[in-house]
Model the fold of this input.
Amino acid sequence: MMPVRLHSRIALGLSPTPRPGLVLLPLGMALGPAGLNLLSPSILSYLDPAVSVALAALGVFAGLGLDFRRSREGVLLTAASLEASVTIVIVGAGVLVSHSWFPVSGPPMLLALMLGISAAVSSTASSDSPDQPLSLATRVGDLDDVLPILLSGLVLASMSQGFSAAAVWLAAQTGLIALVIALAGWLLVAQVSAVSEEHVFVAGTLLLLGGTAAYLSMSALWVGLLGGIVWSLAGGPARDSIERDMRYLQHPLIVLLLLVAGAQLQPSAEVLGLLAVYLLCRSAGKLAGGWLVGRAVVRDLPSDFGRRLIAPGVLAVAFAVSVLQADADSEGTKMLLAVAAIGSLASELLSVMAYPQRGLR
Done:
């Protein structure tokens, strides 16, 4: 999801057409340890802090895109969260049912939840001009990443604390730190007059957000989301300056994230089996969620809304990378990344077939 003013989607293809993004993940795999080894394990470890910053930036974009001063924003967020919840439930249930066929190490419930969260995000392309408001369908598709990012904070906390009150408390503490960092960054940007100083403060704040998440082994997406929400609520010229600087960082960071994700892919027979379940359940979840939202919450959505949600966006891969950062040695997290990344590629292709207009915009 992106701020409306930026008028570009965090699609896997970085644009309304998926082709560039489709190249980056396989390219990363070719450059990684399983290919040419140009992105060797040691180099990937050096890039890990930059990946945390990229994840935090994606969370910031999501937070900046929330603005309850817009008409019907609360209703659209409710609709998007309902649609995302349907997908999480269907994908999670499918993974649990298929666990006996494709056994993996680690708690099956945790893997099912993580795959459900990865599957929940969407990227809806838009042909609107920058001077026109986004359509309802595009806006709901933008907002369906908020709930998964919030859940990602709890999931990563539970990986170290278990499903307990301690995990909730850890996520809350991390969120409070993120709020303080974002507020401090906004105050600094609001006080400067030189553009060069503004760039330094924005970059420094983003580094602090990503570094905090990495140090605490928490979700950088979650930390970035809260930072973006603070900046969105604070508003003013400082918010506009932050948004403008984030726009310059958007594509390089996403390219880095996708290349690193591709380099860390480890396909296997178990991954291919689980991938089929993931794709089937995700497509069913998006179609069912789109239908339910159109019937129960926002009745003026187009009839093909569910099909527009099949494209996953880069956040599906980003969430899997954030989990792998927290537990790089687990076979379950490696499988999560492989299924989410390959599933994102396959879902992009499915979206082009199910909604051909996307590839032409």
Q: What stands out?
A: Confidence is low (pLDDT under 50) at residues 1-9, 13-20, 126-133. The chain has one domain: 19-360. The domain at 19-360 is CATH 1.20.1530.20 (Na+/H+ antiporter like fold). The CA atoms of residues 324 and 333 lie 5 Å apart.
